[in-house]
Amino acid sequence: MTATAHVKDRGGAHSPPRVQPAAPRRRSRRRARIVALVFVFPALLLLGALVVYPVLFSVGRSFFDASGTRFVGGDNYAEMFRDPATLKAIRNTTIWVVVAPALLTGLGLILAVLVEKVRWATAFKLLLFMPMAVSFLAAGIIFRLAYDQDPHKGVLNAAVVSVHDAFKGTSSYPTARARDGHGLEKGRDGSYLTNGSVSPGDTTALGLVGVLPGDLPKGAEPAYGASRRPAAAGEVRGVVYLDFTLGGGGKQGRVDPKESGLPGMKVEALRDGRSVASTTTSADGSFRFAGLGAGSYTLKLPESNFAPPYQGVSWLGPTLVTPAIIGAYLWIWTGFAMVLIGAGLSSLPRDALEAARMDGANEWQIFHRITVPLLAPVLTVVFVTLVINVMKVFDLVYIIAPGPVQEDATVLATQMWLVSFGGGNNQGLGSALGVLLLALVIPAMVFNVRRFRRSQR
């Protein structure tokens, strides 16, 4: 039944409509509100129990001491800004807010534009979006292993060490050392020098230990034959060997038949403290210096022969731990940013882009003069959403950062947990940190909500 009715008079003209009484209309609206409230009440109940009550409780708890029995006013908030660990957490959170959302938005924009030109765009998007299906706990474990300092465990350091060794090489005998009292003494720089001097026509044997037989380079040959070769006039001949006989036996300081030479060992001849000649030992550990002038020389095994192997980068050290964790965060969230920006990109008016191409604009000009300005609302929403997300990042920091550098990587969320439950047992100060984090997040949330409302209009 309609609320009003039109009545025609005899002349065919319409009479004024009859208006429904006000009381029934009010009852209808009240009934609609009651029905809406019944449906909304369970959601409001959950919202109050899971959001409103914890927030109000945390605000109240922040004004009490660690035991929760004594009112301390704003002391917890003052302590928060005097604590070095909290100040470091604020600094790290600032780094996260400035760096991570900007990098993610930029990467998402670049990938969204490039994906449009890829034939298998859907598969590419799926591949980049897959890390979003991995929990932060699992991602933290994955990157904790990837960043491991040991090149045999950490894939990143394995790659870095491989590249380093390909260009600079590595020593073959990092654990080798000379026997005390057998012709060699250690220099200040880690090298070994002969105790006595040699002259042209001399033959010498330089014995080392500390090398496992299994660690000898492939192709190493016995040194016994080389030690028996006499030196010709004007040359110094010698052998660098492993002074150890597998299975026992042999005599220290003398080359025995079963003892192996040490190939690839660099040897220098010094005169008056300066290097005048250098060579490298062959497969049987032998070396020779020809054309030396008359006089006395000292033989040196440079420190490069014994340099420890390159161990790569300390990704989880105090200096790089925060950038390393941000890298793990980028791996997870790049697909999210790309998909959102790609959705905005697909809704751009194509006629504007085609008109620009017809006017002679190149792709770079189209990108930064047309595409980016038109995508500005989407980019802003993505950026602000990521800002809100990084302010409360916890899992990655807590899992990836090792215990000794946990304080160097801490952010507000982890500091709040550590102060409250991770050993600090001061839930008053932890609640104050939670209130600070909420106060920082609210402006970004309000900004995002207003952007959504404006876009809906």
Secondary structure layout plus pairing:
Blueprint: H1 22-61, H2 75-80, H3 84-115, H4 121-129, H5 136-146, H6 155-168, E1 177-178, E2 184-186, E3 192-194, E4 203-209, H7 224-227, E5 235-242, E6 266-271, E7 274-280, E8 286-290, E9 298-301, H8 321-346, H9 350-358, H10 363-391, H11 395-400, H12 406-409, H13 412-420, H14 427-456
Parallel strand pairs: 4-5
Antiparallel strand pairs: 1-4, 2-3, 3-9, 5-8, 6-7, 6-9
Helix pairs in contact: 1-14, 3-8, 3-10, 4-8, 8-10, 9-10, 10-14, 13-14
Report on this model:
- The protein is α+β, with helices and mostly antiparallel strands.
- Among the domains are: 83-157 and 315-425, Orthogonal Bundle (MetI-like fold), CATH 1.10.3720; 177-306, Immunoglobulin-like (Sandwich), CATH 2.60.40.
- The chain is built from 14 helices and nine strands.
- The protein has helices at residues 22-61, 75-80, 84-115, 121-129, 136-146, 155-168, 224-227, 321-346, 350-358, 363-391, 395-400, 406-409, 412-420, 427-456, and strands at 177-178, 184-186, 192-194, 203-209, 235-242, 266-271, 274-280, 286-290, 298-301.
- The strands form two sheets. A five-stranded antiparallel sheet has the order 2-3-9-6-7, with no helix packed on it.
- Strand 2 and strand 3 (192-194) form a beta hairpin.
- It is elongated and about 130 Å long.
- Residues 1-7 have low confidence and may be disordered.
